[in-house]
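hi! just following up on the protien thing from before. the input was this:
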Amino acid sequence: MTLIAILLGTVAAGVGSVWLAAVLSFAMLARYTQHMLSLAAGALMATAFMHLLPEAFESQASAHELFACLLGGLVFFFLLDKAELWHHGHEHHQGIPDPAAPSQVAHAEAVGHAGHHHGHHHAHGSEHRAGGWTVLAGDSVHAFGDGILIASAFLADMRLGVVAALAVLAHEVPHHMGDLVVLRQTSGTQRAALVKVSMAGTVTAIGGVTGYLLLSSFEDFLPYFLVLASSSFVYVALADLIPQLQRRLSLGETAAQVAWLGVGIGLVTLVSSFAHHAH
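and the predicted 3d structure came back as:
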């Protein structure tokens, strides 16, 4: 039953986020990306601080060791980010590029969605293809790690797994919107871009099964994996998503950001409460 729940949760987070991103991106609704970033940041922080960390600290593991794991996790994800293998899709400092604005699409390609900061427009087809596959490789690494983290949450508590899957889905939507914009340029069609990113999203399920097999045999390590999942969520929210929201805005736009941040926190709380009663 737990394995089935992990598979459902990882597929929903990995592939469902791609299709939701496609609806927003291809329907020319990219202007809502800032709202999605705020919602995702709220969902990730709520999941980490209100669910994953409390669950880990209720175990028999030493608080000192768990805090050390949290610190180590933050440094680990920072180093992965520096290696440009993790969260490569959030480097659009002005949000997801508008498909209708060629200058922004050119900027997305010039920045090099996987971290290669080229100073020129990609003019050759071979460079387009190479850039596209680099995006997919980074996506696959990211998705595999997400799958393991979701599996650790489900193994700790079914309700916790649902919340973690929701948080991953929320923060992957703006990520995949950027991927789809770039891959639409490298692949030539929306359909080809959607298929490629969806295939990368299925790696989340592979990570989930791997996490289930590993952690089922090493249950004593489960609290540490929960803390590691928390460090990932906190790092993404504070080092990746929120900096993109730190711009000079009008009072109304700032209020909207705070409101959507609250929506993310409230959504996680609501889903947690619903899952608890259902469980």
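Residues 2-278 form one domain.
The radius of gyration is 18 Å.
cheers
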